[in-house]
Every structure is written in structure tokens, then in C-alpha cells.
Specification:
Blueprint (H helix, E strand, L loop, with lengths): L4 E4 L21 E4 L4 E3 L4 E5 L2 E4 L4 E7 L1 H7 L1 E3 L4 E4 L13 E6 L5 E3 L4 E9 L23
Antiparallel strand pairs: 1-5, 2-11, 3-10, 4-9, 6-8, 6-11, 7-9
Catalytic activity: dUTP + H2O = dUMP + diphosphate + H(+)
Organism: Veillonella criceti
Pfam families: dUTPase (PF00692)
């Protein structure tokens, strides 16, 4: 296995999912597409399937950001501002590490996204821990499974 990258989750293996790519040599983010068409009504929040999972080193995470054109032109925002995909989310028991993008429509009109439309970008980053860190938990589930709140 490579150090970091993207794979298609088994549920979407036959759905012609494009692996994220950077568009220029100096782009930080990998463009992430919708795995299927979806419509988001004004004020509505939807989890948008990507058909993807990401693998990385234990001291890395994948930050998910909205593409600026989605925010500015389409009035879509990430519900949690920035999505954080932990390295242990990959291949979890609940959803195989499927990356879902939580979008909310802040506009006045419904927004329709087509399959293959670029909606977000993922940026791989390293993180640091404190010298007295004592985390021992093991992830067993998917979204929201690292704590009760």
C-alpha cells in the first residue's frame, strides 16, 4: 500500500467513480466529486456520497473543504466548516471509510449537483500530539464514532 491516497469503496466499485486529482502542480487540494446526483433545497442539509475512502499515515488526516465556486456561486457550505477524516476512519466496520460530504444550502433556490461534479477538495495534513497524550481508544464505527458528543 502507498503512504496516502484514495480508493473507491466497494459499494461504488462499478459506478465509474473518479479518484481525486490535483489540477495544477501548486494546488494543495485534491478535487472530490459527487458519486451520484443530488438536489439540496434551501436550508436543507444533505450528506453527499463521494464513493471514496482515503488512506494515510497514523499521524495524518484529510481535511475536507468546500470548493470556493460551490460556496460563492451556489451558496453551499460544509455543515461543519471543515471535515476531518482521521487515518483510522479508513476501512472502519460501519461504512468502510466512505467519505460523505455534509452540505447545507444557504441560498434561496434548490441546488442540483450532478454525478461527477466537483464539490469539495481534500488536503492531506500532519498533526501533532501533546507530550502527555494518553489516547488508547480504537475506532469501530463511522461518522461520529470517536466520542458520544
Amino acid at each position: 500500500m502507498d503512504i496516502r491516497g484514495f480508493e473507491v469503496v466497494s459499494q461504488y466499485e462499478d459506478k465509474d467513480i473518479a479518484l481525486p486529482r490535483r489540477k495544477t502542480t501548486e494546488s494543495a487540494g485534491y478535487d472530490i466529486e459527487c458519486a451520484e446526483a443530488v438536489t439540496i433545497n434551501p436550508g436543507e442539509m444533505k450528506l453527499v456520497a463521494t464513493g471514496l475512502k482515503a488512506f494515510m499515515n497514523y499521524d495524518e488526516y484529510l481535511a475536507i473543504h468546500i470548493r470556493s465556486s460551490m460556496a460563492i456561486k451556489r451558496h453551499l457550505m460544509l455543515v461543519n466548516s471543515t471535515g476531518i477524516i482521521d487515518s483510522d476512519y479508513y476501512n472502519n466496520e460501519e461504512n468502510e471509510g466512505h467519505i460523505l460530504i455534509a452540505l447545507i444550502n444557504m441560498g434561496q433556490e434548490a441546488v442540483s449537483l450532478e454525478k461527477g461534479e466537483r464539490v469539495a477538495q481534500g488536503i492531506f495534513s500532519k498533526y501533532l500530539i501533546t507530550s502527555d497524550d494518553d489516547a488508547t481508544g480504537i475506532r469501530t464505527g463511522g461518522i461520529g464514532s470517536t466520542g458520544n458528543n
